[in-house]
């Protein structure tokens, strides 16, 4: 299980840049992933895949990499799986109020029109 | 002065999408423009150009278009110039706290590392 146990690089909290975080959150599919993890807690990659079953694994992998490299999520080995968790404390510390503002808009119109990979 | 008086399309407030706003703000040069306008009030295109004098006009034009089409700024004719203003009320109404969270981070480390068009 090499692939599942490999440690992946993550930026330290002080190396997380606002523009990278904004870019990572600017894709509807990635924003849906972050909303899922923020609401339901850490998810395995398989559970992330379940959010949009039609998405190719390579696309999901790319999205998870973008979120990890921006410092939005952690991706760590967990048994034979990998677990994706939100770096809420790091993000709240670096950019107070940003994550709440982004996620706070999830409840209304925007979920319907930005959801499910549909680009406006 | 055809170019300066032409009315450009702007999305209505209810057609402004979170992912488009996040994308528009995810570029260091565009974020600097928004910080300038938020701090100093509406700016002419020439004043925007002054923020990064080395930037080609076509690049500035592209950034202003991205910000306008995302619903972040208004670009209106003003005499022989054009004036760029922040759509703060529309953004605050659609995404409460988002703009403050993005701009609130301008004071510390992030300005130094994301400023002046430097991609991290």
Automatic annotation (TrEMBL), chains A, B:
It comes from the Bacteria. Pfam families: HTH_20. CDD domains: HTH_ARSR. InterPro entries: ArsR-like_HTH, HTH_ArsR_DNA-bd_dom, WH-like_DNA-bd_sf, WH_DNA-bd_sf. GO terms for molecular function: DNA-binding transcription factor activity. Gene3D superfamilies: Winged helix-like DNA-binding domain superfamily/Winged helix DNA-binding domain. Residues 10-106 form the HTH arsR-type domain. This is Transcriptional regulator. It comes from Nakamurella endophytica.
């Amino acid at each position: 299980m090499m692939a599942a146990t490999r440690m992946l690089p993550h930026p330290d909290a002080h190396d997380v840049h606002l523009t990278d975080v904004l870019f990572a959150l600017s894709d509807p599919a990635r924003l849906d992933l972050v909303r899922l993890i923020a609401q339901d807690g850490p998810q395995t990659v398989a559970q992330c895949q379940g959010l949009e079953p039609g998405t190719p694994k390579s696309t999901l992998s790319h999205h998870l990499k973008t979120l990890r490299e921006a410092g939005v999520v952690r991706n760590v080995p967990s048994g034979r799986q990998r677990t994706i968790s939100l770096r809420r404390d790091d993000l709240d510390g670096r950019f107070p109020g940003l994550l709440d503002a982004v996620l706070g808009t999830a409840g209304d119109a925007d979920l319907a029109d930005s959801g499910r990979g549909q680009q406006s």
